[in-house]
Automatic annotation (TrEMBL):
Keywords: NADP
SMART domains named among the record's database cross-references: PKS_ER
Protein name (database record): Zinc-dependent alcohol dehydrogenase family protein
Source organism phylogeny: Bacteria, Bacillati, Actinomycetota, Actinomycetes, Pseudonocardiales
Top-rank taxon: Bacteria
Native species: Actinomycetospora endophytica
Pfam family name, one: ADH_zinc_N
Domain Enoyl reductase (ER): 11-326
Length: 328
């Protein structure tokens, strides 16, 4: 039997339960991973609450990202062998597959090799943040050396990865956090500047940093009404990319100032569902890992599936700087 996290109603972390189910059996194009570590993501909190980009079908499980060892292969899976060290990346619907479990059934196309030199915890923490940063900023955004990029909610795992991606291509990352108490960790992570949005005027500070020009790129995880100020600091012809909906509020195009900018949304799935795009992204992230430019920042590790309620409560506290990981 396999222990897995399930929930039968939407709501607070307390709706999560551990259930025992039969061990998964892979079908064509699938494989089973004996899970060593699970990376938590905001998407899973939103899915649990019924506020995600797709409707939650109850009863449901959770989890996009984990590391572990391949224990069974379905027909047609030739890229991996039993015993291989791997990471699972978000490339499926949580209505179809989940990884909060001892053993996870996943599509083989959403699996990447994990080097022997990478720990299980890092293997569960690295892929989603850096794939989002690469895909949203470099592949679709065209971020170049010399550009300025404003990164909101920068203490999140994606925000920290975006800082590293910007530095790797020679751009200047400007990070935001609500409080200056998190400024030093962001500077330590490579941010060139930090704006505390509850203590400073975002528009005035960013325009000061950029000499009045504004930033060529905005990488926004919050959306909602704050987009109006983000548009004011976007340079003429710049790109405002929304990759998250943390505000939970409606987002409109800031047409009152008729800004000359591109405003677009980005989701990781456009890349992880495309084998060729995922291959290119994996090569970029892998090169950054080998060079030492990319290092997953893990805020806290919770031990045991029994800590999943506590881990989700911490996830929603906004106290973390970096990734939260659970080891089954």
């Amino acid at each position: 039997m396999t222990r897995t996290v399930r929930f039968s109603e939407l709501g607070e972390p307390e709706v999560l339960r551990i259930e025992e189910v039969p061990d998964p059996a892979p079908g064509p194009g699938e494989l089973v991973v004996d899970v060593a570590a699970i990376g938590l993501n905001r998407a899973e909190s939103m899915f649990r609450r019924g506020r995600y980009i797709e409707e939650t079908t109850l009863p449901a499980g959770l989890g996009y990202e984990c590391s572990g060892t391949v224990s069974a292969l379905g027909d047609g899976v030739t890229r991996f062998a039993v015993g291989d060290r791997v990471s699972v990346v978000p490339g499926f619907s949580m209505n179809d597959y989940t990884v909060y479990a001892d053993r996870a059934l996943v599509p083989a196309r959403a699996v990447v090799p994990l080097p022997e030199t990478t720990s299980w915890v890092d293997g569960a923490a690295v892929w989603m943040p850096f794939l989002v940063g690469y895909g949203g900023l470099v592949e679709t955004g065209g971020l170049r050396a010399g550009d300025h990029v404003l990164i909101t909610a920068a203490t999140s795992s994606v925000g920290l990865a975006a800082i590293a991606v910007a530095n790797r291509v020679g751009a200047t990352p400007i990070a935001t956090s609500r409080s200056s108490s998190k400024a030093q960790p962001l500077l330590d992570a490579g941010a060139a500047h930090v704006v505390a949005t509850e203590e400073e005027d975002l528009v005035a500070r960013v325009l000061e940093i950029t000499g009045g020009r504004g930033v060529e790129h905005v990488f926004d995880a919050i959306a909602g009404p704050g987009v109006a100020d983000l548009a004011k600091v976007t340079a003429t012809g710049g790109i405002l990319t929304i990759h998250g909906l943390l505000s939970g509020q409606p987002t409109i195009f800031p047409a009152e100032t008729l800004p000359d900018l591109w405003m677009r949304s980005y989701t990781l799935f456009a890349m992880t569902y495309d084998e060729e795009r995922l291959r290119r992204a994996g090569a970029f992230v892998g090169a950054g890992l080998r060079s030492g430019d990319f290092r997953p920042q893990v805020d806290r590790v919770f031990s045991g599936l029994g800590t999943i309620v506590e881990a989700h409560t911490y996830l929603e506290s906004n106290a973390q700087v970096g990734k939260i990981v659970v080891t089954p």
